[in-house]
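Please check this protein record:
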Amino acid sequence: MLKSLKPCGEPCCSNLTRESYCEQHMRTKPAYDQYRESATKRGYNSKWRQARLGYLSKHPFCVSCMMEGRRVPATVVDHIKPHKGDKKLFWDSGNWQPLCAPCHSRKTAKEDGGFKRLRTDHFLSL
């Protein structure tokens, strides 16, 4: 059975695909994105989604935006210290913070060395 069509995972791309990215953007993704496990295999499953919703209901605003005096709804539960597969660190709610999507993207890009750059430490765990 064929997967249903969905939008490409590349921001602002309107192409439809059965994979994470359309053919055009699959070729431009760094090797890290092409070879890492799915979100579910990395722990972002139904248990995580339930924990995430509970956390966001108790912490509804982005901590980064709040520090700038803005009340922006949080949509992401961020791991302050990247867990890199460590389940204990993954589930440590003291290592979580609420962020809006733009702040989370900026934080992740900074940790990864910039947008579309390759993090070599990810290859060590493959």
The chain is about 40% helix and 10% strand. Residues 39 and 85 are 11 Å apart (CA to CA). The longest helix spans residues 46-58. Helices lie at 23-26, 31-35, 46-58, 63-67, 87-91, 101-112, 120-124.
